[in-house]
């Protein structure tokens, strides 16, 4: 299961990499026009809409990225199937469609279906599409249907599979959503303890997309709290209104960037440069705009234990801020932009204390993450590989050295008769074989690879180095 979750995490790296840039564009636009969100400034509108084109469609990016990353071959039909799967379930379970399916008015549809286009559904769509690719991409249909054979069959089967998934979600999704709304209403009367519980579950539920259910209770007017609306309108009690927002500032502005720094420092030396570029951009996006997905999804699946710790710390932050009545608010998210804008509002109470709390939480996040990564050998970005990463790749020379190397490695693995799947990460080939006895390790080593790592009865990894992508591409050509 951990191996499977890590594969999901690695697959998310491609779409996650584009999120910080989008978040920064929105943050700058919001800074230029904090009240109109583009209505009063064409430049702000341009920047906000440009960033929103990516942030608002994050679920689609995840569907495509996970489908591509989880498929046995990095093929365009897998990515297309991820998109098809996502479109099927989000269309079938949209508010309008559910109203037709249930024969009721649109206004009577459970509000859970208004949130069906979330990251969880995107990831689920990608997983289903990848499974369909791995199962049907080589299937040959009878001659009369031959046109739909192989890779053309994958999107079709993905659509069919999502019909079944949609049927299940039609009944399951609203039950879970409604239960969480009820839970939120119950804890809303617990004062600072309730704020802490809300913060914990808010982060814990992000992978499923169900955090929207809790947000609707505390941030909006579902249960009469309307924390965001009241804070910005000046309606409410100073030091109390805003209690369900304030504690996010220390986490998003300080805690998560510090976590990103810890992940960078824990990375292998050969990977630090690559991890630094991701964590720097993601950390700045979290600090400046409060968009945390680039950092959170970077370790959410590859190191779920860290994500639970993150949820606990978020809950603790909200509880502390609420206990001392330190309040600030946000219209977009708990980043620097919203902190500066909200600190001037009448209901803001000692907001500078949130900055002091943030410094403390930066140390908590950094040292806790460093400790847990080392103690439990967590595979955060830059730590997936062990062995001699970054060393010089093949000793072969010539213009076609990667083709020659790939041919030798593939032959050493046993060729088509023995190899069942090949994928690659940053520096190594990850191969599944039928029989480890059919692998000629000496032949593989003769190509000049830094090392070989047998990780299971049918799993072997060939450490190639930073040029692994070129070798993997040549092997895919060999396999046809």
Written account of the structure:
61% of the residues lie in helices and 4% in strands. It is globular. With 480 residues, it is mainly α. Residues 386-399 have low confidence and may be disordered. Among the domains are: 188-384, no CATH class; 401-479, 2-Layer Sandwich (Gyrase A, domain 2), CATH 3.30.1360.60.
The helix/strand class is mainly alpha
What percentage of amino acids are in beta strands? under 5%
Question: Based on the structure, what is the oligomeric state of the protein chains?
Answer: single chain
Instruction: Please give the order of strands in the largest beta sheet.
Output: 1-2-4-3
Number of strands: 4
What is the H/E string?
HHHHHHHHHHHHHHHHHHHEEHEEH
Principal-axis shape: globular
Largest sheet: 4 strands, antiparallel
Write the SSE topology:
Layout: H1 2-16, H2 19-32, H3 42-55, H4 58-70, H5 76-92, H6 95-102, H7 119-136, H8 153-187, H9 191-204, H10 211-218, H11 227-233, H12 248-266, H13 272-289, H14 293-299, H15 304-323, H16 336-342, H17 352-375, H18 401-413, H19 415-418, E1 419-424, E2 428-433, H20 441-445, E3 451-454, E4 459-463, H21 468-479
Antiparallel strand pairs: 1-2, 2-4, 3-4
Helix pairs in contact: 1-4, 1-14, 2-3, 2-13, 4-5, 4-7, 5-7, 5-8, 7-8, 8-10, 9-10, 9-15, 12-13, 12-15, 12-17, 15-17, 18-21
């Amino acid at each position: 299961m951990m191996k499977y979750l890590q594969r999901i995490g690695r697959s998310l790296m491609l779409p996650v990499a584009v999120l910080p840039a989008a978040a920064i564009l929105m943050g700058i636009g919001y800074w230029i026009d904090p009240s109109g969100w583009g209505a009063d400034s064409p430049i702000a509108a341009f920047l906000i809409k440009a960033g929103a084109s990516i942030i608002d469609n994050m679920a689609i990016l995840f569907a495509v990225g996970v489908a591509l990353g989880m498929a046995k071959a990095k093929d365009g039909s897998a990515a297309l199937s991820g998109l098809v799967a996502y479109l099927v379930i989000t269309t079938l379970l949209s508010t309008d469609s559910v109203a037709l399916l249930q024969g009721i008015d649109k206004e009577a549809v459970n509000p859970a279906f208004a949130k069906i286009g979330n990251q969880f559904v995107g990831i689920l769509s990608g997983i289903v599409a990848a499974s369909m690719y791995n199962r049907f991409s080589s299937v040959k249909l009878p001659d009369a249907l031959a046109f739909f054979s192989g890779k053309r069959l994958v999107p079709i089967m993905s659509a069919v599979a999502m019909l079944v998934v949609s049927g299940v979600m039609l009944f399951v999704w609203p039950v879970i959503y409604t239960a969480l709304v009820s839970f939120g209403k119950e804890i809303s009367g617990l004062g600072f303890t309730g704020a802490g519980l809300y913060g914990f579950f808010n982060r814990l539920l992000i992978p499923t997309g169900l955090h929207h259910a809790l947000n609707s209770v505390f941030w909006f007017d579902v249960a009469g709290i309307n924390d965001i609306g009241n804070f910005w309108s000046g309606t409410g009690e100073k030091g109390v209104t805003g209690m369900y927002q304030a504690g996010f500032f220390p986490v998003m502005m300080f805690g998560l960037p510090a976590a990103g720094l810890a992940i960078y420092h824990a990375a292998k030396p050969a990977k630090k440069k690559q991890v630094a570029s991701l964590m720097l951009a993601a950390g700045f996006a979290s600090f400046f705009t409060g968009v945390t997905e680039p950092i959170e999804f970077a370790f959410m699946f590859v190191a779920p234990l860290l994500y639970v710790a993150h949820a606990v710390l978020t809950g603790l932050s909200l509880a502390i801020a609420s206990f001392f009545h330190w309040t600030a608010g946000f219209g977009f998210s708990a980043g620097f932009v919203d902190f500066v804008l909200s600190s001037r509002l009448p209901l803001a109470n000692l907001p500078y204390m949130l900055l002091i709390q943030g410094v403390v939480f930066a140390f908590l996040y950094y040292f806790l993450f460093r400790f847990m990564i080392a103690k439990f050998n967590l595979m955060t970005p830059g730590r997936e590989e062990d062995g001699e990463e970054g060393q010089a790749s093949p000793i072969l020379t010539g213009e076609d050295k990667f083709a020659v190397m790939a041919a030798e490695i593939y032959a050493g693995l046993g060729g088509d008769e023995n190899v069942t799947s090949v994928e690659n990460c940053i520096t190594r080939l990850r191969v599944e074989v039928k029989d480890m006895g059919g692998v000629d390790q000496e032949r593989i080593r003769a190509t000049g690879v830094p090392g070989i790592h047998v990780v299971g009865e049918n799993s072997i990894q060939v450490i190639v180095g930073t040029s692994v992508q070129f070798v993997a591409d040549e092997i895919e050509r060999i396999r046809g």
